[in-house]
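U., I forgot to send this yesterday:
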Amino acid sequence: MGDPGDEQWVARSGDLAEEHIDLASGLGLPSDSDEQEVCLGPGRQHGKESEREQYQAVSHWFSFWVLAGILDRLTDQFSHSCEVCDAVTTSGDSLPLGLLVDMDGVLVDFVTAALRLHDRLEVLEDWPAGEWDMSEVMGISGPEFWGPISEAGADFWASLEPYPWCDELLELVQSTGPWCILTSPSADPFCAAGKITWLQKRWGRGFRDFLIGPPKWICARPDQLLIDDNDTNIDNFRDRGGHGILFPQPWNRNHGLVEDRMGYLREELQQAVSAG
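Result:
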């Protein structure tokens, strides 16, 4: 079977419910063997729910499984995300530094895609240094900014272009230690589905080394390091005992370092690893 995006993926009861029946029983929920097909993508509807309700329901449950680490523990393949995010009882000094990598603004170009959707690419040419809020920069409200993106659905997120340094950054991370994608979705449930599709297009359907959720600080520990382009995410992660590298972008306080983003990242990562 091809990667998501090659063809419509229809999740049947054997794909979702059968493999995770222990989850339902563990939560005290009934396990229904007569579950309806759920269509993850454009196409015909099944059952009484609308396509969007079905998509949203699966997206929410899938995100729960990912955040709980259940998907990783139920597979035989080795997963970095278990190593990075599961609770540990051994001394932090004996563990390698776990690396948590943001997507938008670090690996993929959300900003250009959003501006293109609004037909406002000229904004990039004179971005106010250190200004994070895109709607503020564009002079529109939050709902006006996010509306067209939500209307574009999962395809918007699944088709984001990787930055020119994406491969180099990932090679650096993978050669440094155990790693995991840590990305925050928008309020639209199709966003999480699109992000997963992007990841699985790159690494295949079996790729599960990712966490999706806004509270990135909840993963903070002395043996964890977050690479992110958001000042607040990095500050919160550090405040809770984790390490953080603010990836240079025009919209954060490291805007003066954008000429050599990878050089800065490489140096900061080396220092963090050396400090143990």
